[in-house]
Amino acid sequence: MTGIADVRELVTRNLRQSGIFIAFIAIVVLFSLLNPNFLSPGNLTNIVLQYSYILILAIGMVIVIIAGHIDLSVGSLVALTGAVSATVVIANGNPWWMGVLAAMVVGLLAGAWQGFWVAFVGIPAFIVTLAGMLVFRGLTYEVLDNISLSPFGGSYYLIANGFQNGLFGGPGYDVFTLVVFAIAVVGYAISQFRARQAKIAYQQAVEAFPLFILKIVLVAAVVMWFAYQLAQSRGLPNVLILLAALILIYTLVTQKTVFGRHVYAIGGNLSAAQLSGVKVRKVNFFIFVNIGFLASIAGIVYSSRSNGAQPGAGNMFELDAIAACFIGGAAVTGGVGRVTGAMIGGLIMAVMSNGMQLMGVDQSAQQVVKGLVLLLAVAFDVYNKRRAGTR
């Protein structure tokens, strides 16, 4: 009976974790049937370029949500850091890297400012970041003097619009892109195999080996197909390299470091974390410093993508990032969530937006659909918790 119960729990858990992937695949298939151009190399490249900054924000936002907080200011901070960078590079004629550094410093300072009020003064993050949303937006108007600045051009423009291609040649496609993705697939397979061996060593339930191999093969096939589409278009986008590095780093930080375990502990049970010796104030402070930093990276990418800075930039970005996290499996009550889940949630939002745009759906209808998807995702999370509580 125990073995049957373990298998049932394994299947249930895998279905729950795989539900977001199944939903993502279903949405992709739906839009590919409705519009043949959806899976074209050019459109797939555009999805990566157009929504990369939301995914960057979602990396920081999921850590905030895991800890039981929320951040409403990241959209305004994206606008402010982009405005500072534009002022340094465009208005004052400084090199592109000085604009990048200035934006990062502003993001870190803004994160430290909000982290101080949340961690050391004890004001709820919702209130602090709501105030930050207003303050940073007002500072953006002051920095830009209520006008737009453009263009960046040169190296700054290539941050979000450049590609790595042609390094290995290729008959009609970029071989370098395929090689990079192939290396990533091998790394993924090795990490999955090691994780499986570790579970076996600790006598934890794992899926049957044929199913494990099938999962690796399917992931590899999808990834290499995507790589081939990019290789047929313009090659490997610079912003995808940046995003991949951030995903890898923050996955390791959240899953393999003391800081990551403390974040989960705070969100899961604050009182228990305090009694266990977790320095809650310090962890909360650096959570907001971190999202301030990532908001600056998103601001750099967005201003590079749009080749300028506008006072109204970043509007509603915080809601897209929050939606990506909740759709990707983060719990409203904290303590649950993964960087990879937030990325899948962000891709679902990106695919829906892009697909509806190709179909000519009105902006108002797009907002309705996104809102309903978010509501259903949170309702599914609540249902799973209640079901687990009744066992």
UniProtKB/TrEMBL annotation:
Location in the cell: Cell membrane
Transmembrane segments: 20-39, 51-70, 77-110, 116-136, 172-190, 211-230, 236-253, 283-301, 321-349
UniProt superkingdom: Bacteria
Pfam families membership: BPD_transp_2
InterPro entries: ABC_transp_permease
Alphabetical UniProt keywords: Cell inner membrane, Cell membrane, Membrane, Sugar transport, Transmembrane, Transmembrane helix, Transport
MF-aspect GO terms: transmembrane transporter activity
Key word Phosphoprotein present: no
Major subcellular site: membrane
UniProt keyword Iron-sulfur present: no
Entry GO CC: plasma membrane
Membrane-topology annotation of the record: Multi-pass membrane protein
Role summary: Part of the binding-protein-dependent transport system for D-xylose. Probably responsible for the translocation of the substrate across the membrane.
Name recorded for this polypeptide: Xylose transport system permease protein XylH
Species, as recorded: Actinotalea soli
